[in-house]
Amino acid sequence: MMKVKMDGMLPRQAMETVSELRDKGYVQGIDFDFTYYPSINDRFTGPTKPCCTIFTFYKESLATWFTLRYQ
Question: Buried (b) or exposed (e) across 53-69, using 16+ Cβ within 10 A?
């Protein structure tokens, strides 16, 4: 299992990427999963942690291809 972190990826972008993976025949829950983390804000200093999406791949070759394609 390999995880690929995509910093600054918004929910819309994450869903487009997931749709592209599904169109290529990959199955969520078998080939990959993803989790979106919204940015964390402090009332006084502003954003303290930017948003990100973490993709988890269950085949190392797919994680490598994904990294080359999307990063």
Answer: bebebeeeebbeebeee
Q: Which of 68, 49, 70, 45 is nearest to 34 (CA)?
A: 70
Burial class (CB in 10 A: 0-12, 13-18, 19+), 11: exposed
CA 4 – CA 20 distance, rounded (Å) = 16
Dihedral of the CA atoms 12, 68, 63, 28 (nearest 10)? 30
pLDDT at residue 40, rounded to an integer: 84
- Note the pLDDT tens digit of each residue in 21-50: 999 999 999 999 999 999 888 777 766 788
Domain coordinates in residue numbering, the chain: 2-70
